[in-house]
Amino acid sequence: MSREIQLLATGMRTLVEDLGRAGYAHLGVPTAGAADRAVHRLAQRLVGNDESSAGLECLLGGLALRARCHTIVAVTGAPAAVTIDGSAVASARPHALAPGQVLEVGEPTHGLLVYVALAGGVDVAPALGSRSRDTLSGIGPDAVQPDQVLRLGEVDPASARSLQPDAWPLAAAAAPGEGLVRLDATWGPRDDWFTPAARETLASTTWTVRDDSDRVGTRLAGPALERVDGGAGELASEGMVRGAVQVTRAGLPVVFGVDHPTTGGYPVVAVLDPRSCDRLAQCRPGDQVVIRPRTLPGSRAPVKQAGLK
Amino acid sequence: MELRPVGLEAVLVELGADDPTPARLAEVVRESVGGGVLVEVVPAARTLLVVARDVEARQSVARALPRLVAQAAAESGGLRDPAGLRGPGGQSDPAEVGPQGDPVTLRVVYDGADLDAVAQLLGRSREALVRWHAQTAWTVQFCGFAPGFGYLTADEGGVDVPRLEQPRTRVPAGAVGLAGPCCGVYPRASPGGWQLIGRTDAVLWDLDRPDPALLAPGTRVRFEPVRQA
C-alpha cells in the first residue's frame, strides 16, 4: 500500500510548507516556510516528525483529505472544527487515520492559518533543500488542488516518543487568541529616520490589518509615520528580515512575512520578535494589533535628535 | 562602520567609504564564523546583514564584527569602493571584490526599449552608450528583488540613471536594465522599473543547476554585443 493521501477539498488556498530554505537570501531567495512557525512545529512533533518536515498550511480552513494508508494526523493553528469520518476530534492532538478515512477541517472561528501534519511528512520534491512554496518567487510546489494525491515520507520509528502531547509545553500555548494582538519588537535598524513623534505614534497606535496583506507582508492601516527628512531621502537597498516593520513613502507600516523580498529600500523602524511574527501571521484583515518596541539590551538607545547621514 | 540592531537574531553592518565592500566582508564573515551560527549573510549597497541562529549567536557575531571588518580591510589592502555606490571618485580593483574565477560573459542584443532615452539622458550617442556598457568591467555587488537578480556596478566610471517614472507591469526574462549606478538582468518575467537597454539569452536562474544563480555577490561580469541572441 503506498503512503499517500488524496485531497478532496483545499479551501481558499492550501500550500505545502516546512521551515523554509534559509541560507539563500544573498542570491535573492526568500526563506518562505510556514508563516506561523510555532504551530507548524507543534503539529509536526505531534505526529512524530522532525520539526522541519513538510505539512499543509491551509488559509481559513475548508480542507478535506482521504487517507490511502495508515497514518497519523494532527491539526494546529487557528481554531477550527476537525472531524474524522464526521466525528469531532480534538485539535492539537495526534489521531490515527486508516485507509479510506476522511479528515475534514472547518473554517476557523478566529485566526487565519490551520496547519495539518501527517506522519512521515508531505513528500514533494524539495527545491534548495526545502519543500516550501515561496509565493513571491514561485519556488516550490504549486498550491494543492482537490483530487491531488500527495505522497507521505517514511515514518521514523525512533520518534514515537513525540506522541505524548501533554508532555510538551507548547501544546497548550500555540493557538492564536482573540481580540487585540500585542506584537513585541525591538527598535531599529533605521528608527533614527523617524521623528520622535512618529516613533511615539508607532508604539501607541492600535493598528488595523489591511486586506491587501499576504505571506509577503502584512500592511497596517493607521496614522502616517513622519520621517525626519520628510520622505525626501533615499535609503540604499539593504538586507531585510521577517518581522521588519518597513515604512513606505506614504508613511504606512508593512511588516515583512515569510516570503518577504530579501532586500528593500524603505527604512525599517523596528523588527518584531519571532513569536510576534507568528502571531501577526494569524491576523485577519480587520484585526487590531499594537506594536511595543523596546531597545535591545547592549545596542545603542534610539536617538533623540535624529539626523540622516 | 556602524552596527545597527535588527531584531533579536540579526545585526546590520553599515560600511563607510574607508571600509571593505559588503560583498568582501560577506566572504570574510562566512570564512571566519563557525558553522551553525550563521543563517544568512546578505550584502547590499552599503550594508551587510548578518542573521544568526539565535540571540546568543547574534551577540557573539556582533562582538566579532569589528575585528572582521578590520581583517577584510587589511586583506584587501585598504579602500575598495565600487564606483557610484559611495559617491564620486570611487575606484576599486575588481580582483579584490569577488571570488576568484573568470568573469561571466553575457551576450547582449542592444535593442532595449529605453536605449535611446538613456543615451539622450547621459548625453551620449546610442553607439557610445553600447560601447561603454560592453567595454566596462562589472561586478555583482549584491542580489535581491528576485532569485538570481544581481545588482552590478561598473568597476570604474559609473553612471546615474533614474528609474522609470512608471514601472512596467511586465519585463521579459533576460532584459538588461540600468537604474541608479547599477546594471541588472531580469532572471524571469516580472514587473520592473529599470530602463531597458538590451536582452540576453543567458539563463540567470535555474533551480536544476548545482549553482542556480549565474550571478552571485562578487561575480565579475562582461557584456558582449551580438546581433542576435
TrEMBL record, chain A:
Q: Which residues form the Carboxyltransferase domain?
A: 26-309
InterPro entries per UniProt: CT_A_B (IPR003778), Cyclophilin-like_dom_sf (IPR029000), PxpC (IPR052708)
Q: Provide the coiled-coil residue spans.
A: none
List the molecular function annotations (GO) for this entry. hydrolase activity
**Keywords from the named record:** ATP-binding, Hydrolase, Nucleotide-binding
Q: Which SMART domains match?
A: AHS2
**What PANTHER family does the database record attribute to this sequence?**
5-OXOPROLINASE SUBUNIT C
Q: Tell me what this protein is called.
A: Allophanate hydrolase
Q: Which organism is it from?
A: Arsenicicoccus piscis
TrEMBL record, chain B:
* One Pfam family of this chain: CT_C_D
Disordered as annotated region, ranges: 79-102
Read off the InterPro entries from this record: CT_C_D, Cyclophilin-like_dom_sf, PxpB
On whether Hydrolase is a keyword of this UniProt record, the answer is yes
Limits of the Carboxyltransferase domain: 1-215
TM regions (residue ranges):
none
Protein name per Swiss-Prot or TrEMBL: Carboxyltransferase domain-containing protein
Does the record bear Hydrolase in its keywords?
yes
Tell me the keywords, alphabetical order. ATP-binding, Hydrolase, Nucleotide-binding
Q: Which PANTHER family match?
A: 5-OXOPROLINASE SUBUNIT B
SUPFAM superfamilies according to UniProt: Cyclophilin-like
